[in-house]
Each structure stands twice: as structure tokens, then as C-alpha cells.
Amino acid sequence: MKNDSLTITDVASLLKRAGFTPSETELEALTGYLTLVMKWNKVMNLVGPYSWQDALTILIIDSLYLNQFLRSLSLPSTPVTWDFGAGAGLPGIPLRALWQDGEYYLVDVREKRAMFMEQTVKRLQIPNTNVYKGRVENFMEEHEPADLMLSRAFMPWKKLLELVGPNIKPQGRIVVLALEPVPTDLTEGWSVEKEISYKVGKDTRYFWSLIKA
After folding, report:
1. 101-104: long-range contacts (C-beta < 8 A, 24 or more apart)?
2. I need a surface site. Which of 96, 144, 165, 176 has the fewest CB within 10 A?
3. What are phi and psi of 51, to 5 degrees?
4. Quick check: 3 pLDDT over 80?
5. Across the chain, what does the average pLDDT equal?
6. What is the pLDDT of residue 5?
7. What's the rounded mean pLDDT across residues 18-25?
8. Contacts 24+ apart (CB under 8 A), 66-69
9. What is the DSSP string of 160-184?
């Protein structure tokens, strides 16, 4: 699969430099996602003025680290996962190219972005991955509590725990993708299960797994 100079071989080479060696099937899905992102980005500004190389190594790379992080947690075998404010399908769609446990919901109120995610999930044939267009409050009213919620700049963490916390199962988790270490003044009823950091260019990025007591 290619889009101008975008090929599976090129994607594999860049990811190998970053320390990742996905399988051939995973590479096909990641390359397919990146191809669609760059195509749609020309008309709806999905990810901003990035080259495909930068989109891969600055944006999509988080999903590869997240795959490793989720596999290090003691999650249920078939978790129900929510991904709010998913926008361009990040981190969820490239994550689901690598980690397909349980049922996954991509939620965004914006119609064009939801349309992009729906078509991309269908085109790449990613299993057990659903797109919901609407407000997260409505989504949560219509669905049973989740085992896991992922947040990438969806809202400040205190407001996030307040909003989503009641809809997370006991012993469920919220995993936050952040640019700072986990805070010391967590909301009552939550504790830090695990935290990691990694470098992307000059930035240090963090995952916090916050577990519901």
C-alpha cells in the first residue's frame, strides 16, 4: 500500500528506528491508517500541517507505547474501553491495529471526524471497534460502565475523574496520556496503579494508570 512516497517499508523503517517492530499485518493496518489520515487531512485538517513522517513519529507513536503500557496492566481479558474526544482516531485506531482485546468505543461529537473514524475502521477491518457520534454524557447514559477509559487531552484530569469516574466499574481504570508526571493530589477514591514516561523528540510524555478504589 502506498500514497506517493508512503509505503509499508518506509513505515517499518521509521518505527524500527524508534524501537518498534510490528508484524506484517500490524504494519499494513498502521500504514493504511496513516494513508487515510494524510488523505483526509488535506480537506479537513485532521492533524495539522504534518508530513506523514512527522504524523507517524510525533502523533501515532503514542499508540505504540500505549499498546505496550496496556499489556503491562492487569486488565480483564475482554475489557470495555472508552476513548473520548477521539477526533482523528488517536490514539484508538492505531492502538487497535496492535491491541484488540475486548470492545472499544471511539467517541466524538464532531460529525466529520466521526465519519472519518467510521470509514477508517471499516476500511481497515478493525474488529470490535465502534464509533459513536455525540456527547460523552449521552454516550455514558446509553452504555454500561467501562473497564478502561483513555484520555488524551480530552479535559483536565480532575474534571475527567469527576465526569467519567461514576461510569467506571469498581477496580476499573482511567489511563491518561499527559505531558507531566502524575499529580500527588489525586481525587479521593482513585490511586496510581502505574506510571511510565518516554521521549518523543525533545518532549517527555507520560502514561498514568489511575485505578478506582
Report:
1. 101/70, 101/75, 101/77, 102/76, 102/77, 102/78, 102/128, 102/147, 103/78, 103/79, 103/128, 103/130, 104/128, 104/129, 104/130
2. 144
3. -70, 165
4. no
5. 94
6. 63
7. 96
8. 66/91, 66/95, 66/99, 66/150, 66/175, 66/177, 66/207, 67/95, 67/98, 67/99, 69/175, 69/194, 69/196, 69/207, 69/209
9. HHHHHGGGEEEEEEEEEEESSPPPS
Helices marked H in the chain: 8-17, 24-44, 52-54, 61-71, 92-96, 111-124, 136-142, 157-164
Domain segments of the chain: what residues? 61-212
For 182-202, write each residue's pLDDT tens digit.
998 888 899 999 999 999 999
61-212 maps to which CATH number?
A: 3.40.50.150
- Which residue is it, cell 482516531? 89
Predicted pLDDT at 94: 98
pLDDT in tens, 33-56: 999 999 999 988 888 888 999 999
Residues 36 and 40: their CA atoms lie apart, in Å, by: 6
Helix (H) or strand (E) holding 199: strand 190-200
